[in-house]
Amino acid sequence: MLDRFNREITYLRVSVTDRCNLRCVYCMPEEGIPLKNHKDILSFDEIVEVCKAGIDSGINKIRITGGEPLVRKGIVSLTESIAKLPGLKDLSMTTNGILLDQFAQRLKDAGLMRVNISLDTLDPDEYRQITRGGEITDVIKGIVAAQKAGLEPVKINSVIFDKDSDSMKEGLKDFANKMGLQVRFISRMNLETGDFSVVEGGTGGDCKICNRLRLTANGYIKPCLFSDREFSVRELGAIEAIMKAVEFKPEKGVSCMHGNFYNIGG
Q1: What architecture (CATH level 2) is domain 31-237+249-264?
Q2: Is the model's pLDDT at 263 over the cut of 80?
Q3: Residue 102: CB atoms within 10 Å
């Protein structure tokens, strides 16, 4: 699929839930979020249908996201169903790693290929502060479990809060080198003001080569994280919603006034 700017669209990020077991300061309010009605969240069958339609249309890479995808009941079964779709070349997941120790081997057996794990600091107290209560030891266990299961390369996603972060970045780089991980630094984004930049160590945020669409947990295809356009797979059907999203994918991100990181998938 080519959009209006001759970018080949091959990547679908699939948010399977807007719920999370952490309350990271840059992502979710401390009090949590109003829970969506169960009927508003896509079923597994609907998610697989959208993934199949995407692959039939030219998608070959899918990333499972949230919220936190591992809190969605039956996530291993869903992963297996997506992994079996003919034509899919790359199936990955972004997770905070808190539950990964319990799921890593089962996800690998189900067909997941690799994981990105969110980790913004190596200091346990600072980690609790950023995540509002998370324990970094759980994440480390998840990293080790992912490596043991063969979910590699294991990548670390680290949000940068300010420009005075060189020591934190160096610490994470050293940690990644010692553990055999890859690390990517993501400047803190703001959906409403359109503040974002190219990911250090990755390709995210580089609009001229953006090849991705996003499926929200409640069934909308978004052409861009920083756009309010979205197309309902339930109203239009999966293929039509995908085609509309490709047609209206903007040249570059501007802002998103009607979405949040926890329900778009970041």
Answers
A1: Alpha-Beta Barrel (3.20)
A2: no
A3: 14
Q: Is the CB of residue 27 less than 8 Å from the CB of residue 16?
A: no
pLDDT band at 166 (very low <50, low <70, confident <90, very high): confident
Query: For tokens 């169960």, what's the residue?
Result: 38
Who contacts 154 (Cβ-Cβ below 8 Å, separation ≥6)? 114, 115, 116, 117, 143, 146, 147, 180, 181, 182
What are the beta bridge partners of residue 90? 61
Structure tokens at 131: 């995540």
Tokens of 246: 């490709």
pTM for the complete prediction?
0.96
Q: To 10 degrees, what angle do helices 124-131 and 136-149 make?
A: 100
- 248: its two tokens: 């209206």
Higher pLDDT among residues 38 and 61, named by residue: 61
